[in-house]
Design brief:
Chain A is of the alpha/beta class. Chain A is built from nine helices and 18 strands. The longest helix of chain A has 16 residues, at 226-241. Classes of the chains: A alpha/beta, B alpha/beta. Bound molecules: flavin-adenine dinucleotide (2 copies), flavin mononucleotide (2 copies) and FE2/S2 (inorganic) cluster (2 copies).
């Protein structure tokens, strides 16, 4: 038996496996395959202030060991979320990591304000600020591509979320220096990081000879991108270990399909792991990954999950 | 989980036979038949354990059997198209295939024994025979209209003659039945039978025409759409379509959980075309000029 | 019959398919599977001034639909290259795109100087400056991550290469804004661009719980990254079409395994296509891709390859 | 291309049988047998058309047949390990597998009929029986030493008794033959037979010991190494090892084209260990302090 609990900036979870935002809706659908309360936390689809229709379809293209999506943050808006989705999750006993976004830094703040006011708020174990979305005020440039915009969002969100509930900033890998962005958001008050969001990609439909997605570009996810996610987690936690950026827990996400995949992120430094695209292949994936991860840890003789976090930094081969 | 209306099981192919341009697969999948109803679909994983094709492929349930020599089975009719369907149609007896089913909402059955017309385009006829049986059990007069580009792309004409009280066949090239489209003959059939409901499954363009013809001839269309789906279970939001609700408001709804069967007159056909589905300006949460 | 010829900044090639640097050695090995002169151009392994041993092994890790490599630019150095490899390629009638690199901008210049002096120089149809390698003078930061370093290399290389022979700058996708880098190198005198080099990644060996590569990080390549390559080509050629950066030919590379994959890059704006990692799966891949690409173009009714370049920009779906 | 010494062919499995812990596959691959010699290897594509595993897997040629009921065939002995070998060992008769072979340099045969010892660790014995025949044809006295962790991981003990003039077996756990390692018995065998050459194939650690023992007992070691290979054909530079040349200089050479067989005493064992192969400081082009 491995003690699978993990502590993320004060929030203790029974285990480190979560859904990934946008890959599990808000729980009801997956609950048909396993109890959502089995997971360390349930990460909700990014919610914005107003209802959003999302983008036209096709919104997806399958790619080699991955997919592109351009959902466009479709959702019911924060009010409907607080009335319907959050109470349902609370009723199942799920621990909820709520993913939020805004078209502007101020809108992030509004979303959080209404979220915190929700009667179901007590089931929330953390807020994930999805800063890998376009900043309307800055020519649509993704917040997380720019340290200043990122800081601003994190500051506002951190101010509105009550003390004791951690705020995670979710970063995009589409930057020259992810350590610099990590540094910026941590200094701005983020309690932890979630890495990575999707990579920007395009697929051309070779029959129609035009982009397959109606919205042209989309986000690349799935096992194809796992080495990029592992690298991001490694680089940022290496900088923390070196003391060049503040130390904080990292939630790893990107391409996890099996327990071994999850272990890659954990050994690279992640204190928790999210399962996204793999859920489309196997609706039970998040739950199965938890079982498999525990088996791997037991095989390696770990008695506590926490001891495996970042272990690869200490086992570097001597050259 | 029990009571959730859907199962995920390790299936096994027990038969794979060529039927015209299609492959008819029978897969052992215990637990599906007990839950499934006509119009629902199955999502199959493709490519085996080393597969680079991560997304499941969705197929209408052609029929289901609660028990048999091998335990419960389901049947699907597959057109080989891209890598996933090529892999599936290449499977042999005893090969493994992971099954998630039944998914989606079935065809709603009329409370009264009204005459019905069932329209299938290509492999779109696959779910209709089972539906026809269910309707006839309720005392409905059932006619079928089957259409395809050519004879080899028709599915189930013989079966149709058993399952329905009347069958009309059309092909684009005239290689079987009447030359033309199902929509060319549908009006006549609706009028002749006095049908109250037209059920249809096939390509988007056909569903639109069927809806228009049904409406023009006083029938309600129930259409099973085929949107590109990444998950099939309602978690990815890739399969959305603009559909009016009972409140008259258009929303981008997931065709995998709120469909695949929709009332044809509620689908916003005006937003669909050219391989793209737009977000109607009046849809809930539609982008406003200058961004959201 | 499709006219497959393509013109890259003055260099006319019989067809647009090439090997990718580092994925075909210097020709002899692939020549056992097809004549290297069948290809539009043969792209050589990046050559540096001095002989290099490369990095320790393991140097590779298989990933989902791709691989990581950390070869470390192993090679014989420019002199041995000019004495042995280039004359052999010339003797086969190959058109050669020579990939060069240096630890400093000046070293790029030295390599080019010796290359140009080689008796076999006439077979060279272009020089590809691999600026996606570490700049020793700038804390090992990859040249192509920084517009200023990139400019400096391109200026030096362009000065040393005789007029009429085009210089291509090979860019990394690991930047926040690849259009800005493209702009910088084109303004510095590059005649064209090659996109993309590998993405930085890490794989953890889940048995040893340490990075699988002895060198820790490696470059991710293969079909997994194709959507990123298509996106890079699209973004940069879209900026050229919009007139915001200078217009120049783009060589597309990243994840091409089939003619359809090549067509994706071409329709997105590439005037030529390189086949890299796929060659490890199928030694005949570059030759096969050429045949398949021609078949696709014929199926679409193109009579000239050149007409397909960037066609997807003109066939955007009306929304 | 003809005359290039290697072919790429669409192979077909004609037999796949379990042998102890291994699978012995016979694959139709016309053209290979005519070119192949003992010590060379084959690179097989894995996972079929939808595979996410892009890299070929390399296996020693166990034997080859220029013609037979099915045309030319090759045999390999495969240990199921990761996804690629699991896929291969799961293949059935008639399944397709793409073949590139023969690759690498074969075991060099002695010009004179000297006594030889052939050492195989685990499936490493696979190429040795064919080699033994070739040596005996030249009049060499051939003895074999086969070792493995346990009896089920020995390959070809019975075949060895036919192919060699003497066979010694060791297992780590003593479940067959002598308890211990091949290196424990090798010295004796070399001395007894007066062997001039020791040929070996197996894990790196074993090859190193074999080299040391051979050297100590006055024999030359020829070892077939097993480095991680991405391409197998010499184009990727992943499979390099530090090996001294005839000029005494160490270079990082590709084991797929300059090997897999190397003279044991030329391999820089001092740089190899702990799952890592370092670049010796004196190797050509080795990194200098402060960068290249
Ligand atoms: C509810 C429903 C019922 C269907 N019933 C049948 C049936 O009975 N028989 C049959 O032959 N086909 C049916 N289809 C279509 C079938 O799902 C696609 O042909 C198949 O997914 C294509 O996979 P591929 O690998 O061959 O093609 P690819 O083009 O390689 O598929 C790539 C990706 O796009 C998705 N995709 C592509 N086309 C479709 C599509 N038309 N619908 C949904 N997803 C798609 C795939 O799931 C996959 O993720 C149905 C689709 C839906 C949504
Ligand atoms: C010259 C040579 C001869 C070999 N002969 C045999 C043989 O006769 N029988 C046998 O069972 N095995 C043999 N091997 C080892 C065999 O190639 C590996 O076991 C196999 O590649 C592992 O593939 P996998 O998918 O099971 O494992 P994975 O670990 O998933 O392989 C991942 C990647 O690493 C490479 N790789 C992993 N291990 C090795 C390895 N040991 N050698 C080379 N590449 C590796 C694979 O090619 C693949 O690209 C030989 C290897 C070489 C180089
Ligand atoms: C269909 C889809 C929708 C997504 N929606 C969101 C979202 O709303 N918010 C967010 O932060 N990330 C979103 N993501 C990104 C995932 O949460 C995750 O970061 C990414 O997909 C990488 O993980 P994976 O490879 O496990 O999918 C989405 C991904 C997919 C595939
Ligand atoms: C083993 C290996 C070695 C490579 N070496 C080089 C190199 O020396 N110079 C270079 O510019 N790119 C090098 N690359 C990158 C490729 O040229 C190419 O840009 C990249 O792999 C993407 O293309 P692909 O997906 O077709 O492989 C190398 C790639 C691989 C896989
Ligand atoms: S297919 Fe995923 S929500 Fe419908
Ligand atoms: S395996 Fe590619 S060079 Fe040896």
């Amino acid at each position: 038996m491995v003690d699978m609990s993990t502590t993320l900036a004060g929030a203790t979870l029974p285990n480190p496996v979560m859904t990934a935002s946008g890959c599990a809706a808000n729980g009801k659908e997956l609950h048909r395959f396993f109890p959502v309360s089995d997971l360390g936390a349930f990460v909700t689809k990014t919610v914005m202030r107003d209802p959003r229709s999302g983008r036209p379809t096709p919104r997806m293209a399958e790619t080699s060991s991955g997919m592109l999506n351009s959902i466009g943050l479709q959702g019911p808006g924060i009010d409907a979320f607080c009335e319907q989705d959050l109470p349902w999750l609370a009723a199942q006993g799920a621990r909820v990591l709520v993913s939020v976004a805004g078209n502007t830094a101020e809108e992030f703040g509004e979303v959080v304000q209404r979220l915190v006011a929700s009667p179901a708020w007590p089931c929330v174990v953390g807020v994930e600020a999805n800063i890998s979305c376009p900043n309307v005020a800055n020519r649509g440039l993704v917040f997380a591509c720019d340290p200043v915009s990122s800081e601003r969002v994190v500051q506002i969100v951190r101010t509105r979320v009550p003390e004791g509930v951690p705020v995670f900033a979710k970063l995009t890998p589409d930057v020259t220096d992810i350590v610099a962005i990590a540094d910026a958001v941590l200094r701005a008050g983020a309690d932890g990081l979630t890495m990575i969001n999707t990579l920007l990609g395009i697929v051309i439909d070779t029959d129609l000879l035009r982009p397959q997605l109606a919205g042209v570009t989309g986000g690349l996810s799935g096992p194809a991108v796992r080495p990029v996610a592992v690298r991001a987690v490694w680089q940022v936690t290496a900088a923390m270990r070196a003391g060049t950026i503040p130390t904080a827990p990292v939630i790893g996400v990107g391409g996890v399909r099996t327990g071994a995949d999850a272990l890659e992120l954990v050994a690279a430094g992640a204190s928790a792991v999210q399962v996204g695209t793999a859920t489309f292949n196997d609706p039970s994936a998040p739950r199965r990954v938890l079982t498999e991860l525990e088996e791997h840890l037991a095989r390696h003789g770990f008695t506590r999950f926490a001891d495996a976090v970042g272990v690869a930094h200490e086992r570097m081969a001597a050259l | 989980m029990s009571g959730s209306g859907v199962v995920q099981v390790a299936g096994e192919v027990v038969a794979n036979r060529r039927v015209g341009a299609y492959h008819h697969l029978t897969i052992v999948a215990p637990g599906v038949a007990e839950l499934a109803r006509p119009g629902q679909f199955v999502a199959l994983a493709v490519g085996g354990p080393t597969s680079a094709n991560l997304l499941r492929r969705c197929f209408s349930l052609h029929k289901v059997k609660a028990s048999g020599t091998y335990g419960g089975t389901l049947d699907v009719v597959v057109a080989a198209h891209g890598p996933g369907t090529q892999w599936l149609t290449g499977l042999s007896t005893h090969d493994a295939v992971d099954v998630v089913a039944p998914l989606g909402r079935p065809f709603p059955l009329p409370a009264e024994p009204v005459p019905c017309v069932l329209v299938g385009g290509g492999y779109g006829s696959a779910p209709l025979f089972w539906l026809a049986e269910a309707l006839r059990e309720r005392g409905c007069h059932v006619e079928m209209v089957l259409g395809a580009a050519s004879e080899d792309r028709l599915f189930g004409v013989v079966e149709a003659r058993r399952s329905a009280d009347g069958v009309t066949v059309t092909t684009d090239d005239g290689s079987a039945g009447r030359r033309g489209w199902v929509s060319d003959v549908l009006g006549e059939v609706v009028d002749r039978t006095g049908a109250g409901v037209v059920y249809a499954c096939g390509p988007m363009g056909m569903l639109r025409s069927v809806t228009e013809v049904a409406q023009a001839h006083g029938a309600v269309a129930q259409v099973a759409v085929e949107e590109s789906m990444a998950c099939g279970i309602g978690v990815c939001m890739t399969c959305v379509m603009p559909v009016r609700g009972t409140d008259g408001t258009t929303r981008m709804v997931r065709s995998c959980v709120e469909g695949p069967v929709f009332r044809g007159d509620l689908v916003r056909w005006d937003a669909i075309g050219g391989g793209i589905t737009r977000v109607p300006e009046d849809a809930v949460g539609a982008p406003r000029p200058g961004g959201h």
